Amino acid sequence: MSAAHSFLNVNGLPKELRHNRVLWLLAIVPVVLIAARLKPEAHTLLFVLSVLAIIPLAALLSHATESVAEKTGDAVGGLLNATLGNLTELVIATAALHAGQYCLVKGSVVGAIVTNTLFMLGACFLLGGLKYHVQEYNRAGARLYAGLLLLATIALVSPSAIAKTDLVAGAAVTQKLSLCLAVLLILGYGLGLLFSLKTHREIFAGTEHAEKSDPGWPIGIALGTLAIVTVLVALVSEIFVESVQEAAKAFGMSPAFVGFIVVALVGAAAEMAVAFSAARKDRLDLSVGIALGSATQIALFVGPVLVILSYFIGPTPMDLQFWPGAVVMVFLATLVAAFITSGGRSAWFVGALLILIYTVFALTLYVLPPRT
Amino acid sequence: MSAAHSFLNVNGLPKELRHNRVLWLLAIVPVVLIAARLKPEAHTLLFVLSVLAIIPLAALLSHATESVAEKTGDAVGGLLNATLGNLTELVIATAALHAGQYCLVKGSVVGAIVTNTLFMLGACFLLGGLKYHVQEYNRAGARLYAGLLLLATIALVSPSAIAKTDLVAGAAVTQKLSLCLAVLLILGYGLGLLFSLKTHREIFAGTEHAEKSDPGWPIGIALGTLAIVTVLVALVSEIFVESVQEAAKAFGMSPAFVGFIVVALVGAAAEMAVAFSAARKDRLDLSVGIALGSATQIALFVGPVLVILSYFIGPTPMDLQFWPGAVVMVFLATLVAAFITSGGRSAWFVGALLILIYTVFALTLYVLPPRT
Amino acid sequence: MSAAHSFLNVNGLPKELRHNRVLWLLAIVPVVLIAARLKPEAHTLLFVLSVLAIIPLAALLSHATESVAEKTGDAVGGLLNATLGNLTELVIATAALHAGQYCLVKGSVVGAIVTNTLFMLGACFLLGGLKYHVQEYNRAGARLYAGLLLLATIALVSPSAIAKTDLVAGAAVTQKLSLCLAVLLILGYGLGLLFSLKTHREIFAGTEHAEKSDPGWPIGIALGTLAIVTVLVALVSEIFVESVQEAAKAFGMSPAFVGFIVVALVGAAAEMAVAFSAARKDRLDLSVGIALGSATQIALFVGPVLVILSYFIGPTPMDLQFWPGAVVMVFLATLVAAFITSGGRSAWFVGALLILIYTVFALTLYVLPPRT
Questions:
Q1: Which among A251, A239, A257, A248 is positioned nearest to A329, based on CA atoms?
Q2: Shortest CB distance from B325 goes to which of A161, A176, A187?
Q3: So what's the ipTM on this one?
Q4: pTM of the model
Q5: Interior angle at CA B119, CA C340 and CA A204, nearest 5
Q6: Is A172 on the interface with B (CB under 8 A)?
Q7: For A73-111, how does the pLDDT look when each residue is reduced to its tens digit (9 = 90+)?
């Protein structure tokens, strides 16, 4: 179902990926698990190894999720995908949540939104544009994502707007509000699914590529892989979260940069491979669907779920209050995406522009001295 | 004239309203006036009664205004409508102005802009969308309103941008600037009328519904009703304004929430009835015209007029300086309206999205602890 | 090449300008140079004289630049134009840079962006609209400019967003970041040239007016004029920069107002003459190209070059950190331009709206008391 594809970020890993080099990186998984036990203080090494190990696991997770979703029909598949689509991000963030590293969690949520909206989308437009003079895609899908991202941005802005007028009010009231907003965002996401998959699916159907996507695995293998890989990602994420702050210091990176850029890129690695390959095949609807769909999912589903989860597994509840710079970046990224995609056409320069804007953010965060 | 309709918010109350239950609420008007004399300390009771009494009065006022406007021809009718269209809001706000409750006045102006832009428009799209699969409307009208709202937003942002850099400068300079900006906004509104009613009226003409609107009353009855009802609204408004703050405490609502949400909804009740009914009849041009036209009128006419009036009837002059959160909400509401209406098409989800965004604001204001 | 015209702001001075009254103002150039020597303390007189002297010099400079660019072919001509197009602004700003008046430099950069985007564009729409009922222009060009301005705006916002979270960090880090961002903006500008002049020039070609533009001067005369006039502008600019602050006090204007409005209008006088005349001839592509092209050039080329130049000629390096109000104005101006030009159509009211928004900014800055 191509509507499902564009909205739900069902990123069918192309056959080649399965027989290819990325999966050789799986060999690093046992290495990192053993290394973490033997040399828990080698933060930089563990950081590098865990990043390399997460990439193939993310690819497997992504493909297994999609195979399961394919078997269960649209409606259930939609929900499954909504739950599992950004599983890598969710598992990494849960590990950070458990460790009480709320700064890293928030940074990675906001970073994933900005990275997917600007970098992934921009690279798709650039790579596609270097091959094709002008490419077209379904505007309606992009508008839906932009609208949902606008809702999420406004929900992020609201508590900060309160905090400015009422710094005294403190955590309790922010907490209550964050919980309500989280429920509201999940509701918005659900309505978006209903709209694009059920009531108005014909609007979001991609035009040309009704072609079969990769058939996927049998349900048993898919479910088995899903279970095993989720456990492995959880184990490796824990090592990643423990090592990332120390490693960041060694590399001279601020924690904001790490959360925003490094974690976001690692978490989205598998999706990017699929989105880029689709752009090179002139299937820009799929690329836009993965890039903006993933940003939407994180903003309206993963983020809110983390807020709710924090009541159960975190040391204290987490709120939706972000530092003002983060809110500004999400707002600007949403605005840029809404502006750029309103035409439904792209060329290489559009991609270059998005990547330049992303670079402005990345540079700013890189230069930003670590807050101590 | 349907162009006048869409721009000037001439909300012809449908016949059914006149013979219907809403007008039974008129019986409450004497009750509230007597109760205010006998039990001036029963704030909660007076608040509830005055809200219930304002609704049918607003409906009558709205219809009388329109009947007068219809008789006077387009140009004069346009000016009359501009002056009388949001008379309920104007009378309530004048009562608050007289009482020196500038916080409530400003809250209700900003609240009316946000409520009309997000809630009224959203509910129209949602109600229409539940009946029709996709609805279309004239983009040009929506663009004009969005442009005017952008002007108003920028005029609201400017004094705050000064205040940030120069808090020492103080009230005198803000006052002078506010007065100049108020005149500028009224000028902008006048030019907008000239553009949409005279020089380029063909662009704003609704396509399909050239049908007759409800004929309205004879001019004598209309003018009489106008005079009597205005006095009644003024009397009830005074009770409303006196009781609202105490009642808010009893209900656990912050003053910001009361100004923003309760007063805005009460003031726009009659218009909403007409706009919703038009949406259910697939006359979305009229709905959009009422919702955005009303927001524009309040932002560029009612608000500025209140600033000028404050020099004559208020204890001290009122400025256009709003608390930052209010400015942010007006800005975001305008941005959302410009984005959402740029396509000229709607479906149920568009309405749901607007209402969700409105709910984010309402929630935030509800949770916001009262500033003391 | 009309694509070059619209993007590169090649403002062919119409023949009438060369034989006309403006050039009589050249007689003031020697007067101001002598007056500055004899009466260096007559600030108000020197200010008025230097403004009057810069206008004809800017017109000559503009025409000479274009004549040179025409002779050298598209690619080289593009680069030349990028370097020389806003030479007046560059020379004035360099004089201020040399004097260490960074507040004036920044004010004039931001002012030129806002003035060109709102006032010049608005006046073109208004003047054209008073003659023609509805005018059309190439949307693609306007979108390109809006996209580039968005990039520049985001680059201006970013250091401020840092400063908010980390005021302690201080100048060194802001400096480093500003330099990186300056290089990034110049890169973005270069890619924009490549896109609109080489790879996708057909998208930006104006439709109707393939007509010849004014032939221009022989290369020798053009180069000679360029050299002499640049020296004269530099000399007069020095007097202007020295007198402007004192004269501002005499006129009761804040330094922000002078930088933003007066310097911006003086610097762009010649371009405005061309843009307005084109609008009156229904050549709106050229008008939009000059107005938005000039804003883009200043934001992505002149401004960044000034930052880099400050390392060589200023007392200390200049950063890209603007006061928050300036950033807000650039952001809003960009947003308004993106919104207004998205339709590719204009009428008088669109121009009036832009000018009203500009007036809001000008009023605010005029009322803003000088920071001491």
A1: A257
A2: A161
A3: 0.84
A4: 0.86
A5: 65
A6: no
A7: 555 555 566 566 677 778 888 888 888 888 888 888 889
